[in-house]
Amino acid sequence: MSRVSDSIFNMKGYTLVELIILILILSLLLSIIFPLSKHWIDRIIARAEVNKIVSSIRYAKFLSANLKGKVTVRISKEIKIITPSGYIDKGRLSLIVPKTEMIYKGSNVDLAFSNGIPYYPDLTGKVKIYLRNSQIATVVLRPVTGLVRVEWGW
User: Fold this and answer.
1) What long-range pairs does 79-85 form, CB within 8 A, spacing at least 24?
2) Is residue 129 a contact partner of residue 79, using CB atoms and an 8 Å limit?
3) Cβ neighbours of residue 51 under 8 Å, at least 6 residues apart?
4) Is the pLDDT of residue 32 over 90?
5) Residue 141 and residue 57: Cα distance in Å, rounded?
6) What is the layout of strands, in order, in the sheet containing 78-83?
7) How far apart are CA 44 and CA 42, in angstroms?
């Protein structure tokens, strides 16, 4: 019987102090990694939303060339392509806020094409993209060619 009791007391394991130190180290590592990963995930989502805006602008240019008419891209918290026959809903923007460089009327930013050529009577063809009040990108629409370029600000 003494052998059984001796073997129970000689078992190896972790003490409470060792477990507390392990939990402390893990919590410190997670407190450092979590904010970095959240910022990284926000950047990935914001980049995807800017790419959605750029693809919508290119699609509107394509539609205006094919339809031989005026097609407008309306960007606010959602993206809509307005054609003579109605509009095409391209989706919502969850993180970013678009604003024009010179004039910001209400909550909409409009970029228009006529026969594949961009025109914007009161705008400059630049849309600045903000994420939590800091500018992350500028989408530039060239006047004659309609080429779209993204200038990243981070």
Assistant:
1) 79/52, 79/53, 81/56
2) no
3) none
4) no
5) 9
6) 86-92, 78-83, 70-75, 109-114, 117-119
7) 5
Amino acid identity, position 4: V
The pair of three-digit structure tokens given for residue 1, joined into one six-digit string? 């019987």
CA distance 147 to 41: 29
The residue with tokens 């407008």 is: 72
Return d(Cα 87, Cα 3) in angstroms, integer: 84
User: Residue 98: which of 63, 57, 69 has the closest Cα?
Assistant: 57
Other CB atoms within a 10 A radius of the CB of residue 140 amount to 15
> Residue 25: its pLDDT value, please?
95
Q: pLDDT digit string (tens) for 118-131? A: 876 555 678 888 88
Report, as an integer, the average pLDDT of 45-72.
Answer: 89
